[in-house]
Amino acid sequence: LIGDLGIVTGFVYTTGGVFSHFSFLYLPVIVVAAAMMRGGGVIFAGLSAVVYGLQAVLMYYQLLPLPTTLEGVPVAPSASRVLYQILIHIVGFVLVALLVSVLTESLRRAHSRLEEDSKRAKQFVALTQHVVRSVGAGILAADLEGQVLHVNPAGAAILGIGDVDDQVGRPLEEVMPLAEHNWGLIAGRARSRSLA
Questions:
Q1: Is residue 87 a contact partner of residue 21, using CB atoms and an 8 Å limit?
Q2: Cα-Cα-Cα-Cα dihedral of 183, 189, 191, 192, to 10°?
Q3: CA–CA distance from 188 to each of 85, 143, 176, 183, 195 (Å)?
């Protein structure tokens, strides 16, 4: 990023220094620094302000060659123009750095919370599966379309099913062929209750 800052500074200088319309190119460097590291945006906003201010002051005191007009006449910046440009850029750099830093920090926190919630959900699923597997009663779960979602070992033993995992996704009528039950009617009632 330091190299990027140098490239941007060189480009701003060659396109007019204080008069350059390309000083906004410091902003992507600040944004990337803020996104990559905590406090990086503020650090690079400060570095950008120092480099830009130093360039403007050196041009004002004519220690750097002045940019020329289209006719080749050097144009010296006034003190008020230099001060105005430095102040505007410092404020802009710092505001962008703070905004991006706040946004990236909130994104980091949201990502951290999401990872924690995902870890807790996995632990809960593992605990639930363990409880369902160790229960002595037979449990068979199906969705509203009549597809088997889960059968615990006790349920498999009651139904005379060999491999429990092979039953997942099969139609309920194949796994539990009970002639006196109308699974279509039961599923329709379950759907109407879930919609109510």
A1: no
A2: 160
A3: 72, 11, 18, 8, 11
State pLDDT tens for residues 126-135.
888 788 778 8
Residue range 103-139, pLDDT digits in tens? 999 999 999 999 999 999 999 888 887 887 788 788 8
Distances (CA, A) of 146 to 80, 160, 168, 190: 79, 19, 11, 11
DSSP 8-state class, residue 178: -
pLDDT in tens, 53-103: 998 888 888 888 776 654 565 667 788 888 888 899 999 999 999 999 999
Using the 8-state DSSP alphabet, how is residue 9 labeled?
H
Give me the helices (H) in the chain, please: 2-14, 26-36, 40-60, 79-134, 153-159, 172-175, 183-195
Taking a C-beta distance cutoff of 8 angstroms, is the pair 164, 156 a contact? yes
Is the Cβ–Cβ distance between 67 and 77 less than 8 Å?
no
Whether 42 contacts 101, CB under 8 Å: yes
